[in-house]
Design a protein that fits this description.
alpha/beta, Rossmann fold, Dihydrodipicolinate Reductase, domain 2, 2 domains, 6-stranded parallel β-sheet
Length: 330
């Protein structure tokens, strides 16, 4: 398979390396708004073509488009790719509203192409171990997930710059950047919650620099802490009546253990896992296309819809709106 890219950043380089590692796909065309950036990135990674015109890029002979641009641009770029008959692999969040995800799925089905939202942590071997051992905790009573990571762009924000990740204009903020990782995990493990509350810590421009999500379920609660303005070291846990699952990180899980409440014995569950964990999701994406697996497409799009739905509810409760959602000055 050949692929084109939109976005020339570190995550794009990870994806290109994953494609090379697996031999699944070959980089064909690089798109960037500036010719120097597009040409330099293309030459660095062995691409044959580069473009500064997106329409020209979408008219190439690539089989799919990989999108890793600022959040606000994802929705329109996904639709543009679909309309050209391209499969799409888009980094999260693919859309920031439920309606956007629903429309993407409708358009993809109409054009007979597949769309995939990049949640690499949900396809890794250690996450599968977590799912396989969830039953061992017994009835789940609570869960705590944390993704507290100081952003490399926060210092620039404090110096008066406006990085995309800290900008409402580009659908930034910690919930959309980091919070959707544990939120997607909670929804994947426990299904759709009954309710959600969000308690953000606002920066001076009104964006959420950190925050706490609380998801309510019939018999348990999930608490999610996320931050881009501090660094955390504590583990995440799932607490059941029979035991505890402990994971060192959300994305990726490198250490996973189960502690039996009655015996107090702890069993290590994590195994060997590639550091370049994008390999796992890329393989699933390719397999979906090769097998025309509509069941997986619908399952994963439904998860994407629910993540968008509940992150949208959380933002609105906290008064965080992006351009086009509310008449505000951005």
């Amino acid at each position: 398979m050949k692929f084109s890219i939109i976005g020339t950043n570190w995550i794009t380089e990870m994806f290109i390396n994953a494609a090379k590692e697996t031999g699944i796909a070959k980089l064909n065309t690089v798109y960037s708004r500036t010719q120097s950036s597009a040409e330099q990135f293309a030459k660095k990674h062995g691409a044959n073509n580069w473009d500064t015109d997106m329409n020209d890029m979408l008219n190439d002979d690539s089989d799919f488009v990989y999108i890793a641009s600022p959040n606000m641009l994802h929705y329109e770029q996904v639709l543009a790719s679909i309309n050209k008959g391209k499969h799409v692999f888009c980094e999260k969040p693919m859309g920031f509203t439920e309606d956007q995800i629903k429309h993407i799925q409708t358009q993809a089905s109409a054009k007979d192409v597949f769309v995939f939202e990049g949640y690499r942590h949900l396809f890794s071997p250690n996450y599968q171990q977590l799912k396989d051992n969830l039953k061992n905790v017994g009835k789940v009573r609570s869960a705590f997930f944390q993704y507290i990571q100081y952003s490399s762009r926060y210092d620039a924000y404090k110096e008066g710059q406006s990085p995309n990740v800290f900008s409402k204009k580009f659908a930034g903020g910690v919930l959309m950047d980091l919070g959707v990782y544990p939120l997607s995990m909670a929804i994947d493990l426990f299904g759709e919650p009954n309710g959600i509350d969000y308690f953000p810590v606002y920066l001076s421009n009104g964006i959420d620099g950190s925050g706490t999500l609380v998801l309510s379920y019939p018999e348990h609660v999930v608490t999610i802490m996320c931050s881009k303005v501090a660094q955390g070291t504590i583990s995440s846990e799932i607490h059941g009546e029979d035991g505890i699952l402990t994971l060192d990180h959300i994305a990726p899980i490198t250490k996973l253990s189960f502690t039996n409440r009655k015996t107090h014995k702890t069993e290590e569950l994590s195994g060997e896992q590639l550091k370049l964990d994008m390999v796992y999701e890329l393989k699933e994406f390719k397999q979906m296309i090769d097998q025309n697996n509509q069941a997986n497409f619908k399952k994963w799009m439904e998860r994407s819809r629910l993540v968008a739905k509940w992150s949208q509810k959380a933002r609105y409760k906290a008064g965080i709106y992006f351009p086009g959602e509310k008449s505000e000055s951005f």
